[in-house]
Amino acid sequence: MRPFLTATWRSLLMLNYEVAPEVLRPLVPVGTELETWKGQALASMVGFRFLDTRVRGVAVPMHRDFDEVNLRFYVRRKGPEGWRRGVVFVRELVPRWAIATVARVLYNEPYLSVPMRHTVEMEAAESGAPGRVAYGWRYAGRWHQLSASTEGAPVSSAPDSEEEFITEHYWGYTAQRDGGCAEYAVEHPRWKVWRATDSTFDCDVRALYGEAFVESLGGKPRSAFVADGSAVAVYPGTRLPRS
């Protein structure tokens, strides 16, 4: 099957938080179940660079390179080959109105278009030099930010590690307006990760994500790291059969 979208994702900053399951369960799409890490439900604030974006192989002028910041959590579904481990997005921020509108109207993805900016200083981090990544967005009259420094060289995530749990999800699930669910596959090679230090998340959580996330996202993340990223391919979605 031909990909619907191809791009390169780079400098993925991931801040990971423990969230009460009762906060996430109302958002779990039909046909999937909440996936936990060693019994703990997690949600991640993720910021990254979206580069060389193409839809059906065609690059759209002024929409190839941009930032994205999203809040996501983790689900799974039993497929014919075994468990399909996937993500569900609570909110996705991009600076391009057309991208947000098409994704929201046609696919019911929770996109919002806002002014965005970034700082990525990772040129020497591959060899172990300190790095810095920051993603900012303007909403409700002020700038918000997700940022961290890195130390050491990047390494492949260890089997059965939290880094592997967060980064090795290859399916996306989106609740539909009629109560159904769409499933789509995402392909990319295994990523290397840097340990992040001095992480910050400066955001009006209540205004952007709702009261239910204030307590969990208002505290210190349980983990933080930066993934190097890679080329990715996103395949057309299919509707899950209703049970």
Can you tell me about this structure?
With 243 residues, the protein is mainly beta. 12% of the residues lie in helices and 52% in strands. The protein contains five helices and 14 strands. A seven-stranded mixed barrel has the order 1-3-4-5-10-11-13. The chain starts with a strand and ends with a strand. The mean pLDDT is 93.
Topology:
Layout: E1 5-18, H1 21-24, E2 33-34, E3 42-55, E4 66-79, E5 82-94, H2 97-107, E6 111-113, E7 116-121, E8 131-139, E9 142-156, H3 162-167, E10 171-175, E11 181-187, E12 192-202, H4 205-209, H5 214-217, E13 223-234, E14 238-239
Parallel strand pairs: 5-6, 5-10
Antiparallel strand pairs: 1-3, 1-13, 2-4, 3-4, 4-5, 7-8, 8-9, 9-12, 10-11, 11-13, 11-14, 12-13
Q: Could you provide a short overview of the structure?
A:
The protein has five helices and 14 strands. The chain has helices spanning 21-24, 97-107, 162-167, 205-209, 214-217; strands at 5-18, 33-34, 42-55, 66-79, 82-94, 111-113, 116-121, 131-139, 142-156, 171-175, 181-187, 192-202, 223-234, 238-239.
Mean pLDDT: 93
Individual helix count: 5
Instruction: Indicate the proportion of strand residues.
Output: over 45%
Count of individual beta strands: 14
Task: Please name the CATH architecture.
Answer: Beta Barrel
Give me the oligomer status.
single chain
Counting structural domains, the number is 1
Order of helices and strands: EHEEEEHEEEEHEEEHHEE
Largest sheet: 7 strands, mixed, barrel
Task: Please report the distance between the alpha carbons of the first and last residues.
Answer: 26 Å
Q: For the largest sheet, list the strands in their spatial order.
A: 1-3-4-5-10-11-13
> What best-fitting shape do the alpha-carbon axes yield?
globular
Radius of gyration: 17 Å
* Poorly predicted residue ranges: none
- CATH topology-level name: Acetoacetate decarboxylase-like
Structural class: mainly beta
Report the CATH C-level class: Mainly Beta
